[in-house]
Amino acid sequence: MKAKALLIVAAAMLMAMPVAASDVATISVTGSATVDLEPDTASFTITAAFTEATTKEAREKTAVMIGNAVSILTSQFGVAEDDLETTYISASPEYSWIDDERVLTGQRATQSLNVKFRNLDAIGDVYTELMELDGITLSDVSLDKEDKSDGYSEARIKAVQDAYRKASDFAEAAGVKVGKVLSISDNSSYSAPLYRSANLMLASADVAAESTPITFYSSDISVSATVSIVYAIE
Q: Based on the structure, what is the number of domains in the chain?
């Protein structure tokens, strides 16, 4: 009798134990969403490079040209010094091939300055002014939004909603119902926003370059979120 009672107690305990997750029928889906944001900053790089007889001469000429660019940015367009960053400085000998012989032709100095520009309406104007400086190179423009937290939050919510819609479609087709959420995995990558092209173009090819204004065509940027969700099947 004692052994029989122990068996009854053990059976009751097993019945009271929750069913293991591996024994639950599930639906696994991935949801994704993209949200467009209006950019509020633009970044570009100014590079000056000169080859002179000596490193000192090349460096000084390069520094003067970068200084002229900084003066335009700060005095005419109100760019703060905190939005300027020197990203590259180098000096190296410059060679040319003459009659199949490598000949030293001078010393080359290069300096690059990254600019964060907050007045998108004036991007065309600032490029027009900077292009008046001979000896500098301007990069493409990258658009960004400094605070993307609300955009990411909206993208995550929409990604979860997208996952639920997919799960509901599968459940309806299979004649079952979507149950509770068993797990959510964030598969998003937030290292950088997705940039769309920001185009700069001359207003008229028939007008001299020094008098031709540059038109800047801006567009939204986008942030994305992706989630993997496992639902129980009721």
A: 2
Spacing of C-alpha 144 from chain mean position: 7
Using one digit for the tens of pLDDT, what is the confidence trace for 107-120? 999 999 999 999 99
Same domain for 185 and 232? yes
Q: Which amino acid is at 148?
A: K
- Please spell the DSSP secondary structure of 127-192, one letter per residue: HHHHTTSTTEEE---EEE-S--HHHHHHHHHHHHHHHHHHHHHHHHHHT--EEEEEEEEE----SS
This prediction has a pTM of: 0.71
Domain that holds residue 199: 23-39+146-234
- Are 168 and 81 members of one domain? no
Is 203 within a domain? Answer: yes
